[in-house]
Design a protein that fits this description.
- The chain is α+β, with helices and mostly antiparallel strands.
- The chain has one domain: 4'-phosphopantetheinyl transferase domain (Ribosomal Protein L22, Chain A), CATH 3.90.470.20.
- The protein is built from five helices and ten strands, in the order βαααβββββααββββ.
- It has helices at 15-21, 27-34, 39-59, 123-130, 135-153; strands at 2-8, 69-70, 76-77, 83-89, 92-98, 103-109, 170-173, 176-183, 189-195, 201-205.
- A four-stranded mixed sheet has the order 4-5-1-10, with helices on one face.
- A hairpin with a 2-residue loop joins strand 7 and strand 8.
- It is globular and about 50 Å long.
- 33% of the residues are buried.
Length: 208
């Protein structure tokens, strides 16, 4: 089973609220959060860490945030069967985790775009976007699919988006079978989960 939690920041936290919410976060991660110049970015980062803790609690695994390590592409993970991924955009944060296989997630606030499709999408993807009823919405569908996949793979932005085609919902990439499932978070957002083992996905909103 894949569990996906998401949360929304409705208003700025006071400094006291920020400090209180960071009590469960290790000092090393706290220092990184406090380096952020934008208060919303701090809140988003704190929420991301709290989502990881909520996912750890759900799966009842004996892990702490201090045990997070990073691969060569700065993808966070645990040296354990528990795999997780976090994404944020606008004022929302999503996180997902599973005990079976690898998982990646992306969320994007939909807004006006001015990009050259040729730089990011394969010919098939470009055709699907341009002929869609709402091309701008379809753009974000494909963008989140690509981002979720590369986060599951573990290479992220280090793999050019043109190197992958996510027109299908299931395909083999770098020797692993991947599945893509869009998830509904809010009407003005698009989000997608990528995963290697087909399983039930449970989506739930939580607040901090």
């Amino acid at each position: 089973m894949i569990i996906c939690y998401h949360t929304e920041i409705l208003s700025p936290w006071t400094n006291d609220e920020l400090q209180q919410k960071m009590e469960l976060i290790p000092d090393g991660i706290k220092r990184q959060i406090l380096l952020k110049r934008n208060h919303l970015d701090m809140q988003l980062s704190v929420c991301g860490n709290l989502l990881i803790l909520a996912l750890i609690k759900h799966f009842e695994v004996d892990l702490t945030l201090a045990e997070i390590v990073y691969n060569d592409y700065q993808r966070p993970y645990f040296n354990d069967g528990f795999d997780f991924n976090i994404s944020h955009s606008g004022n929302r944060v999503v996180g997902c985790a599973t005990l079976n296989g690898k998982v990646g997630i992306d969320i994007e606030l939909m807004k006006p775009i001015n990009l050259n499709y040729n730089d990011y999408f394969t010919p098939t993807e470009q055709q699907n976007i341009r002929t869609a009823k709402n091309p701008d919405t379809e753009f974000f569908n494909y963008w989140t699919r690509k981002e979720a996949l590369l986060k599951a793979v573990g290479t992220g932005v280090f793999t050019p988006l043109l190197d992958i085609d996510v027109s299908a919902n299931s395909f083999i990439y770098m020797g692993d079978n991947y599945h893509l499932s869009p998830i509904d978070i809010a009407v003005d957002y698009k989000s997608c989960i990528a995963y290697t083992i087909d399983q039930e996905i449970v989506v739930k909103a939580i607040m901090f």
